[in-house]
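Example (one chain per record):
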Amino acid sequence: MIRRSKVSRLATSSAIIAAGVLVLAACGGETTTTAPAANEAPAASALPATGSGELHLYSWTDYIDPAQLDAFTAETGIQVILDTYDSNETMLAKIQAGATGYDVLVPSDYMVAQMIELGLLENIGVNTMPNAANIKPNLVDVYWDPGRSYSAPYMYGTTGIGVDTTDPAVSGIASWKDYFAAGSVAGNSLDVLKDQTELVSAALRAGGVAPADLCSTDKAQYAAAQELLSTFKPKVIDSDGGIERMVKGSSKARMAWNGSVHRMTVENPNIQFVYPSDGLNLWADNFVVPVGAPDLENAKIFINWMMGPEQAGVASNFSGYDNGIIDSDPFMNDSLKTDPGVVVPADKVALISPTPSCSQEARDLYTEVFTSWQSGQ
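Predicted structure:
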């Protein structure tokens, strides 16, 4: 659907997210949390408006506006120290290795579920925070955190392909199969996320694996994905810096999150977001607090502040994605609301399915394929 009004945009976004949550729940995403009873609304708990000291934030690179963090400091008196990562797996590995000192993390849906299962996250009672009333209704009872005890919504989006339409070597890319084939041709300037979940699931899709089977443990399917990737030799393997490379033209096609492509198109309108015909992942990122966070109260103040409609709108304007907070539209740029890479056209909705939330056995197979591919570069 091309946007006709604010209401239609929100309705379509809600339908996509709601469908994604239903599919994820059906695929067996597990968590140790329990949703509140349907007729039981958590009582709101007061939070101080100001604090002191520091907040250590560990987030994706180039995902949160430094000016917004400065505004938070000016309003609350809490100084934010930002550290960044390039994938969910990088963040998890660091936390599991014993990294301490972080107060807030920003994992994606499936990673929240894993971290809850592993006992790595604090139950901070997000659903009792004053601004929890602003969470879009379809993003409250999510599979990774039913009822929202551990996590607050941040941005959500899809992972497709950014293409420079002026380059004939890549302008015809319409699927993941096309993308991997283009990356097998010497001289083509392709760029790919350094993300095993995204890369391997795209290779599985290109090999004809259905969305419902992306967590399969059928080794033959992974062998086929590995074979497909064996000739895929992108110029760049990096989750960071893709916007700059595409805008400058050193990369001509990139596996990319839709919000990052939106930011590319603002600077270079020749870049287009492609919805791969063999399907693409829907994801939702969240604010969480790791067990042992040194400044727990500051973390709660920050998360509640970011759930305000104005702050969610400001965050969307910087990141290029839609957010999980109602009434944020008036604070969002019109360019976001009219971008078909952000506002999913009606004929593309069926292509979207949730990022796979897999068993450990399937995750190990993803790791095996990704590690083998990366070592062959």
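Caption: DSSP finds 13 helices and 13 strands in the chain.
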